[in-house]
Specification:
elongated; 9 strands; alpha/beta; 298 residues; 2 domains
C-alpha cells in the first residue's frame, strides 16, 4: 500500500502515514488482509490501524493507485446492489476480514479430512468464504459481507502467509493450509485462476526471504517426513510418534485439495514406499500395530 507506521518517542506505534510516491517509486498495491480469530481478538487496535492505512492510501493520487481503483469498482458494484452512496463508499474500503466474532479458524481443516461430506473443491471454497467473510474496520466489526469479500478476491494475484518461527512447518499444522490454502482456493473460485502461493520466512530476521509453497512443501517432506532419522525419532515416542506420522499425511491431503499444484504426485508414491512398503526396513507395520493401528490405516 505504500504506508508506514508512525512511532512516538517511546517507540510506540501511534498511527500510519503514506510513503511519498516519489520515494515509493512504484504503484500502491491493493491488499486483502485475512486475520485469524486469535489476532483479531488480541490485537483489535492493529486491525483498526490496518483499516486506517487503507482509508488513507485510497485517497492518494501521487502514483498509480490500485487500492483506489479497486475501491471504485467495489463501490459501483454495491450501489448497483442497492446500497446508499455513503454506505457503499465506506464498505468499498474494507480490506480486513476474519471469522465471525467468537469463532476461530476457517473450519475447512475439519471439513476436508471428512471427504464423504463434500464432492468438489468448489464446495470447500464456498465453505471457506462462508466462515471467514466477516468484515472488520471503521464502523464495521464482525459484519457478514460475503459479497464484498468476494469482490476483494477478484483481482488477487498473490497469496502469502508469514512464518515468524521455525517451531511449526507447513505439514505439521492445519492452520497454514487452512488459511493460506483455503484463501488460495477461494481466489481460484472467484477469479477463475489460482494465485501465486508464497510464504514469507522470517524466523531468522537476518535471512528473511520469500519461498513458493511448492518448494517449501518439497523441502520439508524430504528433510523430515521421508527422512529415516526423523522416523526413528518418532518411533521412540510410541503412540504420539505414530500420531505425528499420520498427521503429516492428513495435512498433505489438505494442501492437495486446496492447492493441488503444490503436491507433486511423486510425494504420495514416496510416502507409500517409506511408510507402507517400509523402504528403510524400520519395522513400521509392527510399530503401528503396537502403538497406533488407526494411524497406519488412515
Amino acid at each position: 500500500m505504500g504506508m508506514k507506521p508512525v512511532w512516538d518517542e517511546n517507540n510506540k506505534v501511534t498511527g500510519v502515514e503514506p510513503i511519498p510516491g516519489k520515494l515509493l517509486g512504484r504503484p500502491r498495491i491493493d491488499v486483502h488482509l485475512q486475520s485469524s480469530g486469535l489476532f483479531r481478538d488480541n490485537f483489535p487496535n492493529l486491525i483498526l490501524l490496518l483499516d486506517e492505512a487503507v482509508r488513507q492510501a485510497v485517497q492518494l493520487k501521487d502514483v498509480e493507485n490500485f487500492i483506489a481503483k479497486h475501491s471504485r469498482k467495489i463501490k459501483g458494484y454495491l450501489v448497483e446492489k442497492g446500497y446508499s452512496e455513503e454506505e457503499a463508499e465506506n464498505l468499498s474500503k474494507i480490506r480486513v476480514f476474519s471469522a465471525r466474532p467468537g469463532s476461530y479458524g476457517p473450519k475447512i481443516e475439519e471439513l476436508i479430512p471428512n471427504s464423504g461430506l463434500w464432492e468438489s473443491d468448489e464446495e470447500i471454497a464456498d465453505a471457506f468464504i462462508d466462515f471467514v467473510s466477516f468484515a472488520y474496520g471503521k464502523g464495521v466489526w464482525g459484519k457478514p459481507l460475503k459479497s464484498v469479500y468476494k469482490k476483494n478476491l477478484e483481482d488477487v494475484k498473490i497469496t502469502m502467509h508469514t512464518r515468524s518461527s521455525n517451531l511449526f512447518g507447513v505439514l505439521d499444522t492445519d492452520g497454514t493450509w487452512g488459511y493460506l490454502g483455503g484463501l488460495s482456493l477461494a481466489v481460484k473460485k472467484v477469479s477463475g485462476e489460482y494465485p501465486d502461493v508464497l510464504l514469507s520466512i522470517q524466523g531468522n530476521p537476518d535471512a528473511a526471504h520469500i519461498e513458493d509453497i511448492e518448494r517449501t512443501i518439497g523441502e520439508e517432506l524430504r528433510a523430515r517426513y521421508l527422512n529415516p532419522k526423523w522416523i526413528e525419532g518418532m518411533k521412540k515416542e510410541n503412540y504420539a510418534g505414530a500420531w505425528q506420522m499420520n498427521k503429516f499425511v492428513e495435512y498433505m491431503w489438505g494442501w492437495q485439495v486446496t492447492t493441488p499444484f503444490a503436491i507433486d504426485e511423486t510425494y504420495w508414491e514416496q510416502t507409500y514406499e517409506v511408510y507402507v512398503q517400509d523402504k528403510y526396513d524400520l519395522d513400521l507395520k509392527e510399530f503401528f500395530d503396537e502403538n497406533n493401528p488407526w494411524a497406519y490405516q488412515s
